Please model this.
Amino acid sequence: MTPLVLDQVAVDLKDLPSLPAIVMDLLNALERDDLKLEILSKKINQDPALTAKTLRYANSPFYGTQVKVTTIQQAIGLMGLDAVKQMALAAGLSGCFPRNDCYGFDHKAFWRHANAVAYTAKLIARRVELNEDVAFTAGLLHDIGVLGLVTLYPYRYEQVIDYQSQSLITQREAEERILGVDHTQVGASLARAWNFSETMRNAIIGHHHPDQHGSGILATIVHIADGIAHMLGISTIPRRQMISVSVTSWSSLNLDPASLDTLIEEATIKFKKLDQADL
Model:
């Protein structure tokens, strides 16, 4: 099989659907607090599919609302602006990658893992006093390159899945051996095509090796969140394969062992709710 060339992949990525306008607005407003309730509600309501999916999220056991949520305004009133922003992001992003015929790839498991990493990254960001929305979004997007590869080259990616299932190698190693590129490179290309911030691109390309110069603290947060999600079984890789977490990365956040125990406890509660929800 002829290896993929990253420059050609970047060209092919342009064939993917554009992000909904509301998703772009939310991504551009991540580090600002000027997104008004009325504006968010109006923008989501302009997209019927996004509205329906956001309301389905709002009524799932994961969010634990005690009443039936029937409007975006009601969802914001019950759960707050930040929670609805995160739901809209998750709903909008997942809608850009329709399920296809890549045998062995589980779209539902992918988004379950992405949401688990997102919520764990948010918990970590809260402890180190960084922007929780940015951390959540980076966690949600960290493996977006996998979806790019699965969508553009489903039959090639089947071979990656098959090769990894028979080997004790990582997903990235399997991608590199079969395709010639890995999902972090493709994710960074996709982030560039969609005009994500440099910080977000660095987190996507650096979340497996956050100790490398220039990766940034967001890559460190996502790396640790990813490790915790895998450790607790919210994973897309074979169970016999281990995911290691960089000790240097953990140390750089200045969190003590008790903080890790609390993080795992809180993440476990979130993940149990994920198991009950159809996200």
